[in-house]
Amino acid sequence: MTENAIRHVPVVIVGAGPTGITAATLLAQYGLDCLVLDRWPGVYPQPRAVHLDDEIYRVIARLGIADEFAAISRPTLGLRLLDNRSQRFRVLAEFNRDPSRSPNGFPQANMFDQPELEALLRANLKRYPNAQLRGDAEVTEVTDTGRRVRVTFTDRSDGEVHQVDADYLLGCDGANSLVRAQIGSAIRDLNFQQRWLVVDVASDADLRQWEGVHQVCDPVRAGTYMRIGSARYRWEFQLLADETADDFGTIDALRSLIAPWTADVADAELTLLRVTEYTFRAQVADRWRRGNIFILGDAAHLTPPFVGQGMGAGVRDAANLAWKIAAVHDGTLAADVLDTYERERKPHARHMIRLALAVGWAMTGGGRVGSLARRAVLPRVRLIPGLRDKVVDSTTPALHASAMVRKPRRPRQLAGTLCPNPLLPNGQRLDDVVGAGFALITTSRPDDADEASLRRAGVVVLVAQPGSALQTWLRRGSANAALVRPDRTVMRTGRDAAALCAWTLTVLHRR
Ligand SMILES: Cc1cc2nc3c(=O)[nH]c(=O)nc-3n(C[C@H](O)[C@H](O)[C@H](O)COP(=O)(O)OP(=O)(O)OC[C@H]3O[C@@H](n4cnc5c(N)ncnc54)[C@H](O)[C@@H]3O)c2cc1C
After folding, report:
1. For the chain, does the N or the C end have fewer beta carbons within 10 angstroms?
2. Which residue's C-alpha comes closest to atom 14 of ligand 1?
3. How far is residue 16's CA from residue 478's CA, in Å, rounded to a whole number?
4. What angle in degrees, to the nearest 10, is found between the helix axes of 54-63 and 114-125?
5. Comparing C-alpha atoms, which of 133, 136, 73, 132 is closest to residue 108?
6. pLDDT computed for residue 459 by the predictor
């Protein structure tokens, strides 16, 4: 193959899982051509993720499939911690979420089936002619030639080897990422490894359970139960040292584990869809970028699924990076903005993994002493002011300061957090009005000249009306104006709206 014959695409994405397809759709929305390569012809069929929060739902809505996702998902009530004493469950604590909408505009906890979501994501990507997905394409090598990134892949249907050149390469190729290895990134282990059994069951019978996530706190056999859909259920159980998934291959063999939820349901009414073993790990890659090659999603971090945030972290990575690449590519922002991807996302991903480990510990840690402590403390947790709200609140931490998150040293800072997504007076949600660009949310309208300049720079101006949700939000951050990035993270706030407007115009310039 001669150099001239090698096709060039601005962005190549390795991996068409939820992270890769989210990145591709957003890049396409920002007007950038991209090619997604995946080694398999279709969606990975095995159910993995079952929960996502309102922040991730908001990204899904940005992709254009909010209604479709609503049709395949189920808002859930919250979390119940159970004590397993002599095979009898007792509720230690219950944290109810308001299943109605949140500041992000969507329910705070949602159950779904990952292959169904991935099928929606892929079908939606077809609406964007500037994004191409090629299945049966196994990437074997990624090299940075200095000017461009050369990607070598094999078409698995005929064995033919192809090459494509890209300005940027996104490694969304999962836990065993080839791209991660090729950029010399090493995995840092956060010292957690447990073998769990994952069980998916279909049943038209009503199990008559509380409609939230049940966590069984048991140092010997921790477990989780969730209703995924109208006729779908998921259990996850910690495996004992001498057990494997083969020991639980039938409903009969599973009975001892699922009996507390299914005692009144006959075997014939329960269809075992899948029973498999997973080793849950907690890991973060030490570098997420080399030159214009980036890693995202499970390629960059792995978490045990105790708070249902693994896939969410990948979607957050894609939302964080896509607009930056688009802005650098079209010359709106300088290339060093790309440094902020790892700087912002790594601490956030690490925080969410630590949260999952803490919940895992609350379920299993401390042996007999831990069990006694749980029985004593957990029933009272909901009584501690503020703590209950913290457990129930789905809001994730603010991003760390970076060139794209400017935080003055004062409390109650909005920079690094997501702006809300309320209904505006015209009946539309903020995200639908703002679209793919920056937004300046301000209590006082800029003068005509400034507003025209902002518009030319692609910034949507939203005036927060007195008494509106946006004004209340600005007040909470002691601000009169906020500059919001395309991923809806607040970049900077100010008391002086005119000064923030002028600053915005110095930051955003088009070539
Ligand atoms: C039991 C279990 C429960 C979970 N529950 C939740 C939950 O409730 N909520 C949640 O948010 N997360 C959950 N997760 C995690 C979630 O499933 C993953 O984090 C998510 O799938 C990662 O998405 P990804 O796109 O980064 O990687 P993947 O989904 O692994 O996709 C990677 C893609 O890259 C492709 N690929 C790999 N190598 C190559 C190559 N060399 N060339 C071409 N293509 C390649 C693969 O074929 C694959 O399609 C759970 C995981 C498990 C195992």
Report:
1. C
2. 49
3. 42
4. 30
5. 73
6. 96
Q: Is the CB of 38 under 6 A from ligand 1?
A: yes
Phi, psi of 81, deg, nearest 5 = -95, 125
Q: Position of tokens 């991923």?
A: 487
Task: Output the CA 112–ligand 1 centroid distance in Å.
Answer: 15
Asked whether 49 lines ligand 1 (CB < 6 A), one says yes
How far is residue 492's CA from residue 415's CA, in Å, rounded to a whole number? 5
pLDDT on residue 94:
81
Which residue stretches of the chain have pLDDT < 70? 1-4, 86-87, 99, 101, 365-392, 510-511
Rama region for 458: left / alpha / beta (φ>0; ψ in -120 to 50; rest): left
For residue 445, give the DSSP letter.
P
CA of 298, closest atom in ligand 1 = 26
- pLDDT score recorded for residue 377: 57
Give the pLDDT score at 51.
Answer: 93
> What distance, in Å, lies between the first and last C-alpha atoms of the chain?
35
Cα of 314 vs centre of ligand 1, distance in Å, is 9
Distance (Å, whole) CA 355 – CA 371: 19
**How do residues 371-429 score in pLDDT, each as one tens digit?**
665 555 555 555 555 555 556 677 889 999 999 999 877 777 899 999 999 999 999 99
Q: Could you tell me if the CB of 406 is within 6 A of ligand 1?
A: no
Q: pLDDT value at position 489?
A: 98
Q: Which residue is it, tokens 């909901």? A: 382
In single-letter form, the type of residue at position 62 comes to: R
CA separation for the pair 493, 134 (Å, rounded): 42
Which residue is it, tokens 């692609």? 458
The Å distance, Cα 226 to ligand 1 centre, comes to 20
Cα–Cα dist 254/252, whole Å: 5
Residues 6+ apart with CB under 8 A from 288: 185, 294, 295, 296, 300, 341, 342, 345, 346
pLDDT of residue 360: 82
